[in-house]
Amino acid sequence: MKAQQLPDRPERMQTGSSTESFLDTAFARQRAAFALNPFPGAAERRLNLDRLIRVIVKRQDEIAAALDRDFGGRCRAEVRYSEIFVALQSLRYAKRRVKAWMEPRPVPVGVALQRANAWVMPQPLGVVGIVVPWNYPVYLTVGPLAGALAAGNRVILKLPEITPSTSSALARLLAECFDQDVVSVMQGDADTAKAFVQLPFDHLLFTGSTAVGRQVMLAAAANLTPVTLELGGKSPLLLAPDANFSSAAGSIVFGKLLNAGQTCIAPDYALVPANRLEEFVGRLQTEIGKQYPRATENSDYTDIINEKQRSRLEQYLQEAHAAGTRVITIGAAPSGQDRKIAPTLVIDPPDYLRLMQEEIFGPILPVKPYGSLDEALAYINARPRPLALYLYTRSSSVIDEVLKRTISGGVSINDTLVHIAVEDLPFGGAGASGLGHYHGQAGFDTFSKLKSVFHRRGFALSAALHPPYGKLHDLTMRFLIRWF
Asked: Are residues 274 and 422 both part of a single domain?
């Protein structure tokens, strides 16, 4: 095959009117590179994953420092497990299994179609686009990238402009690992993102808000680009009447206040038996004080990403106060020198408040009392399907009932957040909280074309079905309809 000449390598992100030209050039370059090598072998894919593993381990301090600058205060210990460790886990998991994932997957043919065999062939799609959000910019770059590279694709990343230091660090890190024929990085504002999602990718993964996800899907539809949307929503925390509040409080506080609540699968509101409401509130107050003493003065407690987001959260609380709702602030008030917001419980807020209508994405937990489990499930089911649902109970019958009567992207029972770290569990939303899945083999399959292959071997029994139709055809059909 005659080698195709690749477009000139774009050295840096352009701005203004040249953005679309730069994107087109980067996309064309990767398309051409894919045409030259449309099915990279397992060794090449593992090498790509290993390069990224080694450079993340090497640059982890640089990454943590960049995140700290962008947030104005991001706990380094938190970064090590919620960004670095889980990113490395995704890469290492894919590296160990990619050869097996690539193997043809035999499927039964059935007696009527003998002699033949059939299989599913995972095939690289081509050029994949990934739009990265700001809240976990390292993990939510590397996690999807692991699946796309394991599947043998070329990848173009749109990194978040809200975390410029981290995006620049990631761009340097990726340039150290890959030629832009393999992984290319785009930085820029909302106009760049808009132009990015209009490219005719072979697959597009977007992580972000439901509102923007609708716009992304609309833009992708013009090219019939398949999309995976990892969105958010209001993930409920349901404490059954038999829940052990003492053991539950620790994981609830961890799940809600990790990254100061700026987590798409953080519990967004709690449903608590009305007769145990004060017990629950007391347990949470004690646990918050234990995990984050004087939170707003505590370096373990992360800042809100920017002033716009902080102001939005403060407006939620102002509206709650104005409605006469009981608001409990735990720990010291913010000093004004940073963007921290103290952990806050809002007790039985009316549903018309924006706090109960919009994803909170911050360290505020509304707590709603309920009378019966049926009432709590009806409340959950009356709202858009969430990305995660958290259930605390000691009853297997309650677990079975909640799992069968609710629909959500994922469920954790007697814990929060940690289901996202199980690589064998497909991660994705339902309805307004997302479309499609990734992680582990689910990610490999998302970024692959699972091609159906049928191979005829020798004489075909189905030849008896060919015209002209007569007695043999009639007898064959009678036999097949009766027995198969």
From this structure: yes
213/261 same-domain check: no
pLDDT at 296 over 80: yes
User: What distance in Å separates the CA atoms of residue 467 and residue 473, rounded to the nearest whole number?
Assistant: 8
Measure the N-to-C terminal CA separation of the chain; round to a whole number of Å: 47
Res 309: pLDDT: 96
Q: Kindly state whether residue 110 falls inside one of the protein's structural domains.
A: yes
pLDDT at 334: 67
User: Within 13 A of 107's CA, how many CA atoms are on the CB side?
Assistant: 12
Amino acid symbol at 135: N
Same domain, 204 and 304: no
Q: Does any domain span residue 462?
A: no
Q: Rg of the chain over CA atoms, in angstroms?
A: 26
Residues near 49 by beta carbon (within 8 Å), at least 6 away in sequence: 91, 92, 94, 95, 98, 146, 149, 150
Is the pLDDT at 2 greater than 70, yes or no? no
CA dihedral 316, 319, 324, 330 (to 10 degrees): 30
d(CA 231, CA 208): 5
Kindly state whether residues 358 and 253 are assigned to the same domain. yes
Residue 5: pLDDT band by 50, 70, 90 thresholds? very low
pLDDT at 465 over 60: yes
DSSP one-letter string for 313-365:
HHHHHHHHHHTT-EEEE-SPPP-SSS-----EEEES--TTSHHHHS---SSEE
Which phi and psi angles does 123 have, rounded to 5°? Answer: -130, 140
pLDDT in tens, 199-249: 999 999 999 999 999 999 999 999 999 999 999 899 999 999 999 999 999
463 in any annotated domain: no
Number of C-beta neighbours around residue 408 at 10 A:
21
The whole domain housing 313 covers 236-428
Instruction: Supply the residues annotated as catalytic.
Output: 230, 264
Whichever domain contains 289, its CATH number is 3.40.309.10
Mean pLDDT of the region 175-189? 95
Give the total number of structural domains in the chain: 2
Six-digit token string for 339? 């963007």
Q: Would residue 482 count as lying in a domain? A: no
